[in-house]
């Protein structure tokens, strides 16, 4: 039992001696950026960038104390260097850096500090062939003497703390001529039927256009010829903004543009009407036989409902002397996205 007590006291004595050997004023300190203010290094001069960092010392450093600065990892095999205006004072104490290496240098005080607000400036190699490659470097300090301060800060080279997020949105542009009562059913004919003097004969279809083009879309309309027979008997085109009238030989179209579907740049909703271009803004209108601006919108457009399609109605009327025959006309629409 006596031997056990002796060994216990010996162990306690060893612990006490070890504690006594530790620095009495070891303290972690928070390093902060001075220049560049956010720690991001995106420019260089001859392959180097100057960094200035600061901290609040745990006490006033004395003559002969040192501060070792370690750069990790070494940005290149080039040595760290002094700034253009060398650090001549730290916390009011004079001194200088000794020999520089690829990973740092040691500052030695030749005159005691007069305060605790400390700053240092170093010129660190940051470029490889004058190109700053993405890299994050740690700058750590460790002082020796009465006050042992330690801490580290990160500097970010060439966007080393950035993440470039990218995405691709495929371009889309679709166009279909569909039934006005069943938008999923293609309709590439428009039968006016057997014309009589006792009625105006109509037929219709809808234009369904969608695109994610930032500048929207434009479209044109043109026909291969007037509504005519192979022998070139024609049904007279209606005068612009006229009215196809029962008993009067006339032919034209009426356009009811989509009232929604256009992207609202303010809200992002597809609630804007498209534009009926030129003469097609009023009805009735003759069908042109050369490409003519028809409908358009200047942003994305999404056609999925009746209200977001454009209704085209062809109308024909004859007089008692309109020549008999089979009349036809091919109307062509061309849609172009403005990407």
Main sheet makeup: 8 strands, mixed
Q: Quote the beta fraction.
A: 35-45%
Shape: rod-shaped
Unreliable residue runs: 1-22
Total DSSP E strands: 21
Tally of separate domains:
2
Number of helices: 1
Structural class: mainly beta
Distance between the termini: 93 Å
Arithmetic mean of pLDDT: 91
Gyration radius (Cα, Å) is 42 Å
Helix content: under 10%
Q: List SSEs in N-to-C order.
A: HEEEEEEEEEEEEEEEEEEEEE
Describe it.
The chain has one helix and 21 strands. It is mainly beta and 339 residues long. Strands 1, 3, 5, 6, 7, 8, 10 and 11 form an eight-stranded mixed beta sheet that branches. Strands 12-13-20-15 form a four-stranded antiparallel beta sheet, with no helix packed on it. The protein has a four-stranded antiparallel beta sheet with strand order 18-19-14-21, with no helix packed on it. The N terminus is likely disordered.
Summary, kept brief:
The protein has 2 domains: 24-157, Immunoglobulin-like; 173-337.
List the helices and strands and how they pair.
Layout: H1 2-21, E1 26-28, E2 32-35, E3 40-41, E4 48-56, E5 66-72, E6 89-90, E7 93-97, E8 104-109, E9 117-125, E10 135-144, E11 148-157, E12 173-178, E13 201-211, E14 217-223, E15 250-256, E16 262-263, E17 270-272, E18 275-276, E19 292-297, E20 310-317, E21 331-337
Parallel strand pairs: 1-11, 3-11
Antiparallel strand pairs: 2-4, 4-9, 5-8, 5-10, 6-7, 7-8, 10-11, 12-13, 13-20, 14-19, 14-21, 15-20, 16-17, 18-19
């Amino acid at each position: 039992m006596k031997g056990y007590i002796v060994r216990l006291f010996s162990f306690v004595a060893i612990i006490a001696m070890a504690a006594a050997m530790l620095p009495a004023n070891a303290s972690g300190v928070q390093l902060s950026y001075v220049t560049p203010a956010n720690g991001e290094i995106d420019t260089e001069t001859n392959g180097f960038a100057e960094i200035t960092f600061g901290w609040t010392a745990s006490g006033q450093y004395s003559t002969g104390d040192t501060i070792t600065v370690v750069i990790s990892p070494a940005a290149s095999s080039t040595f760290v260097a002094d700034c253009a205006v060398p650090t001549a004072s730290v916390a009011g104490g004079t001194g200088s850096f000794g020999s520089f290496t690829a990973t740092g240098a040691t500052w030695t005080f030749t005159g005691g500090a007069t305060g605790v607000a400390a700053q240092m400036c170093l010129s660190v190699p940051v470029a490889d062939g004058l190109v700053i490659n993405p890299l994050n470097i740690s700058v750590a300090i460790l002082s020796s003497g009465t006050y042992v301060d330690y801490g580290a800060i990160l500097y970010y080279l060439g966007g080393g703390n950035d993440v470039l997020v990218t995405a691709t949105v495929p371009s889309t542009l679709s166009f279909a001529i569909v039934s006005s009562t069943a938008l999923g059913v293609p309709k590439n004919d428009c039968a006016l039927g057997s014309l009589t003097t006792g009625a105006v004969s109509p037929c219709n279809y809808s234009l369904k256009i969608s695109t994610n083009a930032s500048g929207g879309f434009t479209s044109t309309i043109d026909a291969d010829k007037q509504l005519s027979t192979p022998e070139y008997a024609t049904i007279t085109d209606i005068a612009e903004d006229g009215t196809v009238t029962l008993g009067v030989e006339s032919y034209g179209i009426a356009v009811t543009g989509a009232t929604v579907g256009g992207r609202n740049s303010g809200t992002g909703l597809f609630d804007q009407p498209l534009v009926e271009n030129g003469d097609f803004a009023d009805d009735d209108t003759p069908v042109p036989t050369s490409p003519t601006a028809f409908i358009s919108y200047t942003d994305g457009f999404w056609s999925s409902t009746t209200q977001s399609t454009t209704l085209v109605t062809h109308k024909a009327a004859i007089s008692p002397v309109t020549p008999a025959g089979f009349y036809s006309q091919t109307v062509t629409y061309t849609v172009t996205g403005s990407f």
